[in-house]
Design brief:
Length: 298
Amino acid sequence: MTDENAVQVPDWNGQSGERWVAYQTRLDAMMAVFGQAAIEAAAPAKGERVLDVGCGAGATSFDLAARVGANSHVLGVDISEPLIDRARALAPQDTSALFKVADASNIDLPEGAFDILFSRFGVMFFDNPTAAFAHMRRALKPGGRVAFVCWRAMAENDWLRLPMIAVKDILPAIAPPGPEAPGPFSFGDQGRVARILRGAGFTDVTFIPFDAAIPFGKGETRDAAIDDAVKMTFEVGPLSRALADQPDAVRIRAWAAARAVYAEHAGELSVMLNGSVWIVTARNPIGYGSAQQLSPSS
């Protein structure tokens, strides 16, 4: 791999990747409704080939493979070896989905090999997203389609906003990432995403806002579900990193604050929190040579 995405690669092959594997079942359940919305927007047909970028443990790859049928295939790529290992372990015997540990921003793929470029929350982490999409576009057929789902602004997503607000007076001030820094919410700005895709050579860029309740945490009782939601918050995502070096006394206070926030929200066996995303689609123009790659400055 190149120096591109140099922070993301070791993180997702270390602690982040291991924790996502540990919580894979619940995390896939949280994101399922958004992945399905993006798959419907992609409208895969029998015989089409799909590149699934940032495929994680393979949930969307398996769904896409079922749509395109046994005579075609889906290639799921992810920078995380632990997640790709998990995807291979979960793969049904009859799936046409294949998996590869690779960085989609520089993966070597045949030109024009795919009908659809798809992603469920896997395209917001590129150091140079325009160059990454220009590279991936070369693997799409002329007229090929893009469909992905990405988070809107953090302020619109209670699953992260609420616990961060709960601990703001307990933890040292957490400097927010720059608006274009790689991260979960770096594609929240519709205008920026449109510029990236058009700069990479795509046309017909569209955005559909989509909102759904996310089942956060899981338990046999409401109290157990709330505790599990807090445990997930402490072990997966931005708050887990903010708490990593904090003493036990701070962590205990943060736990109580996050738990109080989650207890205010509906749900019996899970805590239901709002999630807000963009469903983004675009097209590789028919008259634009698939072999032509734009420069990173385009």
